[in-house]
Design a protein that fits this description.
single chain, about 180 residues, alpha+beta, 434 Repressor (Amino-terminal Domain), 2 domains, globular
């Protein structure tokens, strides 16, 4: 394979890949093929079933016990296909607040965090709409439980997705 930047030959390696294209710094795709150009440093990962990967990321974010970070909020908002203005209207906040949350200038309040997660689950256009209803209800219960117990301050964890998981989900979807 030729490098699209410099035209030199690229080498292919199976390795872990930090999936920064998701907009999140903590997503790792394990054991995927990555084409690397030794000349200019260009890297081209082979990522299959991106929609499924984004669904898993969303499910992880919806069920995590800690408040959403700005990047996580933006990921979910974009996965819903909503603009910042539309999201502000649905959460009854100023659009400037959405910008401040997404750029980590302000923390997302616990009520807005929970309301946004539930709105994501209930949104029929979001990637969560692909999940079975029982999984979505489980996430909704977990979110509402946080309302009772309060948010825990937890460090963000790595989200690790293996090729086997992608292939298995793909096979299950076609059975």
């Amino acid at each position: 394979m030729k490098c699209p930047n410099c035209g030199n030959e690229m080498k292919s390696k199976i390795r872990d890949y930090e999936y920064v294209e998701s907009g999140l710094k903590n997503v790792v795709l394990k054991g995927i093929t990555v084409h690397e150009c030794k000349h200019c440093g260009e890297m081209l990962p082979e990522i299959s079933n991106v929609k499924q990967i984004h669904k898993w990321i969303a499910e992880y974010l919806l069920s995590k016990g800690a408040p959403l970070t700005g990047e996580e909020f933006r990921f979910l908002r974009k996965a819903m296909g909503k603009s910042a203005k539309e999201t502000a209207l649905s959460l009854a906040v100023n659009p400037v607040s959405i910008s401040r949350w997404e750029n980590n200038k302000e923390k997302i309040g616990p009520q807005s965090d929970r309301l946004f997660r539930v709105a994501f689950i209930l949104d029929t256009n979001s990637i969560a709409a692909l999940s079975p209803a029982t999984i979505l209800l489980k996430h909704a219960r977990e979110i509402l439980q946080c309302a009772v117990s309060g948010h825990k301050k937890l460090k963000s964890e790595k989200i690790v997705i293996t090729p086997q998981k992608v292939r298995q989900e793909h096979a299950d979807a076609h059975d």
